[in-house]
Amino acid sequence: MAGQESLGEFELIARYLAPLASSVPGAYGLRDDAAIIRAPAGHDIVVTTDAMIEGVHFLKSDGAQRIARKLLRVNLSDLAAKGAEPIGYQLVLGLPVPLDEAWLEAFTAGLAMDQKAFNCPLHGGDTTRSPSGITLAITAFGAVPTGQMLRRGGAVAGDDLYVTGSIGDAALGLEAKLNGRLFSSAAAMVFDARLHLPSPRLAFGAGLRNLAHAAMDISDGLVQDVGHIAAASGLRAVLNADSVPLSQAARQALADAPELLSVILGGGDDYELVFSAPPAAADRLRDLSKLTRLNVTKIGYLEPGHGVGVLDSAGRPVQLEHGGFQHFAGPA
Amino acid sequence: MAGQESLGEFELIARYLAPLASSVPGAYGLRDDAAIIRAPAGHDIVVTTDAMIEGVHFLKSDGAQRIARKLLRVNLSDLAAKGAEPIGYQLVLGLPVPLDEAWLEAFTAGLAMDQKAFNCPLHGGDTTRSPSGITLAITAFGAVPTGQMLRRGGAVAGDDLYVTGSIGDAALGLEAKLNGRLFSSAAAMVFDARLHLPSPRLAFGAGLRNLAHAAMDISDGLVQDVGHIAAASGLRAVLNADSVPLSQAARQALADAPELLSVILGGGDDYELVFSAPPAAADRLRDLSKLTRLNVTKIGYLEPGHGVGVLDSAGRPVQLEHGGFQHFAGPA
Q1: Residue B279 buriedness (CB in 10 A; 0-12 / 13-18 / 19+)
Q2: pLDDT at residue number B328
Q3: What's chain B's Rg over C-alpha atoms?
Q4: What dihedral do alpha carbons A285, A287, A288, A292 form, nearest 10°?
Q5: Measured between CA atoms, how close is B151 to chain A, in angstroms?
Q6: Which of A47, A174, B20, B324 yields a CA-CA distance of 20 to 30 A from B183?
Q7: What are the extents of the domains in chain B?
């Protein structure tokens, strides 16, 4: 960096990005116009795109490494939800000038760490100047055996509804970050970590092939995303709010402030899997949970109709204030 | 639009984007987390990404329809340069709020027009709010018979260098737009059209498979891009400036202002193909040119060494001021 007035586009690519593609013969060292994606024989290629824009999805103060890891992980979470195993990704990297090389170094270190952990190397992309903020997007590719991609629209009346892991920590982290809500320092750390570093449930998702009827990852909020499965499947979902799995920290926060239920069920960024499966799948789901060391909890069921009903354990409707995240929704 | 205070993300997708994906079964109406890309048996999938950011690559006043068409076409040009035939694309659409629906309607109309013309439908993507300007990116997929993707690095000493079409019009258009350079009104129209609406050379690129040794499209300027082929192939390129094909309008502009040679050879946005082929390919290239109704011109050759030499017809070195486009290059 010393003595470097202006890092050019080609030096940026050679120094920071090409090492991320070095294991991929079809990426040609990022020195060609395009890359080749290869899937194993008998597989479909699944593709998904998620963008993250400074001031909308993150603040620069979140830290370059965490931003990079979240960017890759939210895309991997979509692959997980479709039962796909990662192949690789394309990166859009829009940066203000002059380039902040320390930021870039930490950002690419974050990508390096997680692309290795999840076996999903860089294949190509585009770097550009961005006049007023960091602009990021990843298009990720995965492989599923032909015809076995998990869909939102495959649920059947009588299916049970399940989620992996626990719900609401990330939304509580956002509540602390944006609205200044105070939690115990231990809880605040849990929530912040879940907000900034989701865990793509890849092994669990791959295990759901031929087991779940419908699946997606929870990014916009549990209730809204359950609604997407219901709508795509032409069914009504019934959710038991009391059975939604919470972390110990979230349980405590909810006990202290019951109005947080809306945040927990309606917030987003969980990146857990929500899926439907027939009652006969229960044993195999328990086995999959053990094998992947990931809790899975039945939270409801699907029936004829449309929409989402949220009930408590006594069967009474639960009122929620928060409808879930929409990118363009403004004040009413 | 009337009576609509705030168009939500899901309505935006359903109204403006889903129709662009209606012909693709694997796009699931843009209502799932991911799409399936399918290539014909015996083909590799080629992937390329190009972003366009307001204030860097375009101005909003360029017109939504032209911006959309250029965005798709610059990606298709990369597929053309690799000998690939389009399969489809993922779109990143970052828009300021409140949404400008008239803009969005014209933008998606532009995409509709060109994705039909080039047989490259939308498969999926991500829509988001963008705080301070329109942010666009496309990741496009194409198919080439396995192992036949055209590369930058395949040139052989003794190859001839060729370009399709004519060079410099778009750079002269940019010179008029950014630097206020005046041309005749007929010439200005030609240059402006070439700047805003490149023509991806898909049929020609497909014809170059098994014929060209190396190929790329010209986006950063002829001299710089020829340099990329030379560097990737470990060779030196020799370019005859006088044989570079110019449109009648560019020829006239150059006659009036000889210093424009640097702009023509060093500017960018041509989106023609530059490629190397052995002398024995000359007849087949002539046939391909006739078949595709696209001029092809020999502009130089490759020899052992490195770098690019630009000579005039008498073999004297030509000095150029303009090194080609780099996204992060600032003033020296």
Answers
A1: exposed
A2: 63
A3: 21
A4: 140
A5: 7
A6: B324
A7: 9-145, 160-311
pLDDT tens digits, A139-196: 999 999 999 999 999 999 999 999 999 999 999 999 999 999 999 999 999 999 999 9
Contact B90 A139 (CB under 8 A): yes
Tell which CATH classification among 3.20.20.60, 3.40.50.300, 3.40.50.720, 3.90.650.10 matches the domain A160-311.
3.90.650.10
Token duo for residue B252 = 């006239």
The answer to whether the beta carbons of residues B164 and B201 sit under 8 Å apart is: yes
Which among A268, A272, A274 has a CA at the least distance from the CA of A323? A268
Q: Is A256 helix (H, G, I), strand (E, B) or coil?
A: helix
Report residue A323's pLDDT band, with 50, 70 and 90 as the boundaries.
Answer: low
Q: Which CATH class is domain A10-145?
A: alpha beta
- pLDDT-derived band at A325 (thresholds 50, 70, 90) equals low
B124 close to A141: Cβ distance less than 8 angstroms: no
CB contact under 8 Å between A126 and B137, yes or no, is yes
How close does chain B come to A60, measured CA to CA in Å? 14
3-state helix, strand, coil in chain B (%, to 5): 40, 25, 35
CB spacing of A36 vs B45 below 8 angstroms: yes
In whole numbers, what is the pLDDT of chain A averaged over residues?
Answer: 93
Q: Kindly state the tokens that stand for A39.
A: 């899937």
Contact B241, B310 (CB under 8 A): yes
**Both tokens assigned to B305:** 């060494």
Say if CB A271 and CB A198 are below 8 A apart. yes
Q: Span B6-17, mean pLDDT?
A: 87
Q: Which B positions 22-51 lie with beta carbon below 8 A of chain A?
A: 26, 28, 31-39, 44-51
CA neighbor of A50 nearest in space, from A62, A68, A38, A63 = A68
**DSSP code string of A189-222:** HHHHHHHHS----HHHHHHHTTT-SEEEE-SS-H
Distant-in-sequence contacts of A107-110, Cβ < 8 A, 24+ apart: A107/A64, A107/A65, A107/A67, A107/A68, A108/A16, A108/A17, A108/A19, A108/A20, A108/A68, A109/A65, A109/A68, A110/A64, A110/A65, A110/A66, A110/A67, A110/A68, A110/A69, A110/A72
Give pTM, 2 decimals: 0.94
d(CA A250, CA A169): 6
Q: Name the band, by pLDDT with cuts 50, 70 and 90, for residue B7.
A: confident
What is the rounded average pLDDT of the residues A240-267? 96
Lowest mean pLDDT among A32-41, A84-93, B72-81: A32-41
| Local confidence band at A320 (pLDDT 50, 70, 90 cut-offs) | confident
State ipTM: 0.93
pLDDT at position B10 is: 86
Helix/strand/coil for B92? strand
Alpha-helix residue ranges (DSSP H) falling in chain B: 9-12, 64-81, 101-117, 169-179, 185-196, 202-207, 222-233, 248-256, 261-266, 282-292
For residue B321, the model assigns a pLDDT of 75
Backbone conformation region of residue A221, classed left if phi is above 0, alpha if psi is from -120 to 50, else beta: left
Residues of chain B found within 8 Å of residue A125, distances taken between Cβ atoms:
49
Fold of B9-145: 60s Ribosomal Protein L30; Chain: A; (3.30.1330)
Which 3 state secondary structure label does DSSP give A122? strand
